[in-house]
Structure to design on (912 residues):
């Protein structure tokens, strides 16, 4: 039997309100008797930690960063969606819900998505109250823009730094609770294991990244808000430290991992420039509102461009192929990310790619500059244009940007029920680290919305329901007190120490980064923008081989009792090497194309994705069965009662 | 694969890097050589090359802080050839590219130097003092839930834009490292200005500035003597106007203090 997804009864519009009424409440005077661990201080974790502390719980918050303000959420550029309908252009909770389910290619749970759309409006109010300086119109009201895949203007933004401003808002709320003593903040502390006693999450084991100390922390419930795993590909738009360790440790302790192969490849990133490349930089999707995507019409012309024989500005209008506008007249350059990415790849595969590597297409701003002037364009996108110029040494006001798709976001993640609880009671997952709301493809500006929805408005209610049924006294079923001396914590600490010792003892020849790059290469080639059974089968064997080599030939120096960044990296790569194989298994299992998962065997004559609703309208939730054992597939059927399943067409 | 500039020639460089095993240990400059550095590399990618070399030679790689590598998280913090974040104006270390250097150059790389920012190891410093300053009052006292509709608080665009400019501080600490007094005034003023400009920040306007300035002093940052090196080295262009505003706010608050304690 699949674990209950706990979707409340009733019509879609009533579910959340009814549920809020039905959940058990913890008496205000009792809240201070409960400890909650929140791991991660990005939008999801920062918002959760602050809100839970405001309610009166004792919160311990953890981050591997030196400050909660540095979480990867800070890098989000484009904006955050909310169904405010301030623009009077026909938006509504229902439309945001509908767009998200459709954009996700019908692989998300309706009830969760509807709730997300409902609370989206509260998020904006909350952030404004905190002093988040959103963009405004001259009349003083909030400004909006439209964002990839949406035909209404529902995206709120703060120039090209929306994530920064939202995160600093959550950080300020968190700082306030730290100053009140309701949140105890542990920085530079990395979760290395989740401790489960009698089937319930009871705490975590961490390593202090400055002095190497291994520590145990107990709690009545644990919330993971540890972000996405896009860095399994080595090169991605994620920050360098982003990793899967927290989610993976939880998975190995019994939490199901859902839809791991659902990866979002973002169409507009600065192309790779050399082997030394350490990460890829996103150029916000908002640029597609004004930028036009094109390649030369002929392979010959593309070749001459690549060799530097002609300059891009020499190519005449009639020699350009604005392929998104041509193929998708209704949406043009604003088609969803997966569609835009696949088309860019297709152009490059045809030999019409540009840049010295041929792995790039143009994003051209000449028209908009002509229309509204350089000054106005700079007002809108100045920081992005500057960033582009710094990295490439080219001036995007004078010539088109070169862009190429890159790994950006992971829709898959820990399986959670409607309450955001994983399959381990007392363990919750929020933000990008869960799988819940985006199906097989996430719409632009919806990750920030989900992180803050989970943190500010969902978890504060749903966790109370669990705590209300949990005794305040922390003890196991044998009445043994649960603290750092409890045998389960002692064992978990020992396991962490042994693993560290094992890494250090190998003294092999290859560095953690070399293994990571090798894994990333396999993932990108065979489990990236396009996948097929043959490639995936090959990749599985390659990953297993690489993993064996890793555990024999890893090179590290120093000890675990000091700051040792290569050792930290090794632990994260070890987990990526296991996750990678599961992603491949998941991609192999899913014999259909949907959203970001494109199986070459399943496409129509025009090359568009072919979904198989009859056989694959389910969430694939994988269950860990032991090291080097095949994982067990559990299927949560997806039932669509409000949105009719149809072919996702953007023509 | 060729870089974006096919004519760029690889460089050989000498690096003088601050090495310090931990907070309490003595530190020293150690010389390293790196070869075949592409001008299209970022400064941190160049350090990645050094660290891979060191690890292969069985030597301890150089510890340094970084994460986003796109100039927004504020993690990276290197003092390069005597300047916060190196020679390029308005740029974080991670966005500095090697094309700003030439073949044969010697580059000195040190951590931020400030009493309030102790060294963790090598180039990594502890900037938690900044967090404690924010905890002292860098927020609006609102709980989650119950906020009025966002459009019930209209804010003139120019005010919203100015508040936004101040709010873009990434908390890197370059201003402190650039200042001969190791003052944190620019950092503190950015947050004070943001909230003093906005209607949401009015209620606690006076207590906020007093408490944040008091915490800044407790942390051991130096006094501001209006030299302006902070703003000159700030990677995101936080302007000295914020310090002027902080001073005005502080004087006004002191004159009519709301702090009853
Ligand atoms: C360049 C870029 C631009 C983007 N732009 C947008 C946009 O415009 N709009 C939008 O909606 N979305 C955008 N996204 C996506 C969005 O930013 C993320 O999905 C979202 O911010 C994730 O938030 P989070 O809170 O779940 O995780 P994160 O912000 O990644 O936070 C993770 C936290 O967990 C901590 N952590 C992780 N593992 C451990 C561990 N083992 N131990 C201790 N701590 C741990 C980290 O320290 C960190 O505090 C963008 C993403 C990228 C990469
Ligand atoms: S004011 Fe500028 S230099 Fe100082 S911390 Fe903020 S961003 Fe860094
Ligand atoms: S690494 Fe994030 S600002 Fe430099």
């Amino acid at each position: 039997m699949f674990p209950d997804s706990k979707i409340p009864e009733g019509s879609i519009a009533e579910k959340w309100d009814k549920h809020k009424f039905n959940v058990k409440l913890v008496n205000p005077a009792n809240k201070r008797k409960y400890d909650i661990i929140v791991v991660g201080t990005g939008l999801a974790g920062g918002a959760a930690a602050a809100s839970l502390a405001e309610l009166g719980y004792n919160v311990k918050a953890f981050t591997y960063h030196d400050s909660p303000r540095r979480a990867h959420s800070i890098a989000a550029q484009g904006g955050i969606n909310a169904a405010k309908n301030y623009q009077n252009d026909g938006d509504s909770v229902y439309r945001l819900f509908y767009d998200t389910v459709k954009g996700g290619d019908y692989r998300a749970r309706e009830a969760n998505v509807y709730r997300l759309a409902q609370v989206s409006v509260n998020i904006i109010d909350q952030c404004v109250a905190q002093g988040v300086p959103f963009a405004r119109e001259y009349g003083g009201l909030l400004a909006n823009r439209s964002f990839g895949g949406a035909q209404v203007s529902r995206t709120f933004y703060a120039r090209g730094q929306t994530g920064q401003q939202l995160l600093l808002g959550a950080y300020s709320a968190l700082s306030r609770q730290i100053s009140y003593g309701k949140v105890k903040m542990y920085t530079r502390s990395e979760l290395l294991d989740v401790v489960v006693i009698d089937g319930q999450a009871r705490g975590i084991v961490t390593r202090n990244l400055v002095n190497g100390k291994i520590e145990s922390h107990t709690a009545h419930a644990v919330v993971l808000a540890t972000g996405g795993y896009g860095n399994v590909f080595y090169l991605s738009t994620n920050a360098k430290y982003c990793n899967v360790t927290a989610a993976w440790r939880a998975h190995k302790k019994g939490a199901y991992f859902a839809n791991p192969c659902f990866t979002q490849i973002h169409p507009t990133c600065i192309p790779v420039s050399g082997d030394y490349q350490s990460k890829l930089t996103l150029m916000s999707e908002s640029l597609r509102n004004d930028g036009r995507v094109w390649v030369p019409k002929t392979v010959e012309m593309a070749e001459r461009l690549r060799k530097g024989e002609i300059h891009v500005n020499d190519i005449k209008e009639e020699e350009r192929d604005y392929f998104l506008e041509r193929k998708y007249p209704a949406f043009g350059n604003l088609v969803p990310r997966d569609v835009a990415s696949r088309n860019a790849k297709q152009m490059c595969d045809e030999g019409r790619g540009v840049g010295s590597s041929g792995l790039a297409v143009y994003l051209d701003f000449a028209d908009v500059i002509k229309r509204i002037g350089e000054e106005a364009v700079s007002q809108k996108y100045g920081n992005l244009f500057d960033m582009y110029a710094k990295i490439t040494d080219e001036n995007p006001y004078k010539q088109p940007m070169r862009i190429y798709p890159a790994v950006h976001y992971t829709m898959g993640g820990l399986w959670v029920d409607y309450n955001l609880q994983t399959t381990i009671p007392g363990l919750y997952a929020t933000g990008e680290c869960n799988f819940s709301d985006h199906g097989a493809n996430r719409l632009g500006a919806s990750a920030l919305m989900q992180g803050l929805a989970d943190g500010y408005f969902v978890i504060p209610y749903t966790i109370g329901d669990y705590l209300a049924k949990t005794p305040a006294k922390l003890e196991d079923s044998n009445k043994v007190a649960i603290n750092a001396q409890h045998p389960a914590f002692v064992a978990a600490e020992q396991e962490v120490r042994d693993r560290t010792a094992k890494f250090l003892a190998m003294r092999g020849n290859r560095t953690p980064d070399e293994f990571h790059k090798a894994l990333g290469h396999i993932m990108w080639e065979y489990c990236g923008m396009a996948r097929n059974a043959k490639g995936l089968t090959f990749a599985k064997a390659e990953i297993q081989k690489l993993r064996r080599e890793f555990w024999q030939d890893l090179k590290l120096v120093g000890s675990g009792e000091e700051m040792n960044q290569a050792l930290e990296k090794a632990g994260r790569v070890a987990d990526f090497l296991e996750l990678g194989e599961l992603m491949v298994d998941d991609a192999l299992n899913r014999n259909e194309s949907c959203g970001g998962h494109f199986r070459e065997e399943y496409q129509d004559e025009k090359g568009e994705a072919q979904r198989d609703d009859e056989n694959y309208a389910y969430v694939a939730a994988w269950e860990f069965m032991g090291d080097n054992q095949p994982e067990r597939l559990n299927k949560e059927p997806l039932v669509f009662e409000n949105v009719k399943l149809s072919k996702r067409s953007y023509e | 694969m060729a870089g974006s500039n096919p004519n760029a020639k690889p460089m050989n460089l000498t690096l003088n890097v601050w090495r310090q095993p931990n907070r309490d240990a003595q530190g020293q400059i150690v010389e390293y050589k790196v070869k075949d550095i592409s001008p299209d590399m970022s400064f941190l990618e160049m350090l990645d090359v050094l660290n891979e070399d060191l690890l292969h030679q069985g030597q301890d790689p150089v510890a340094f802080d970084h994460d986003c590598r796109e100039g927004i998280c504020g993690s990276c913090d290197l003092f390069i050839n005597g300047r916060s974040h190196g020679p390029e104006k308005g740029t974080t270390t991670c966005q500095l590219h090697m094309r700003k250097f030439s073949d044969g150059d010697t580059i000195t790389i040190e951590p931020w130097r400030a009493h309030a920012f102790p060294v963790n190891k090598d180039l990594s410093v502890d900037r938690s003092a900044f967090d404690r300053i924010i905890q002292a009052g860098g927020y609006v006292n609102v709980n989650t839930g119950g906020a009025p509709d966002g459009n019930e608080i209209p804010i003139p665009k120019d005010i919203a834009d100015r508040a936004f400019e101040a709010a873009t501080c990434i908390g890197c600490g370059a201003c402190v490292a650039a200042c001969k007094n190791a003052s944190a005034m620019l950092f503190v003023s950015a947050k004070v200005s943001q909230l003093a400009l906005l209607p949401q920040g009015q209620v606690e306007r006076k207590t906020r500035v007093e408490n944040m300035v008091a915490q800044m002093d407790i942390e051991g940052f130096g006094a501001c003597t209006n030299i302006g090196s902070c703003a000159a080295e700030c990677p995101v262009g936080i302007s000295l106007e914020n310090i002027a505003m902080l001073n005005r706010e502080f004087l006004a608050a002191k004159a009519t203090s709301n702090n009853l304690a």
The first helix of chain A runs from residue 15 to 22. Chain A is about 35% helix and 15% strand.
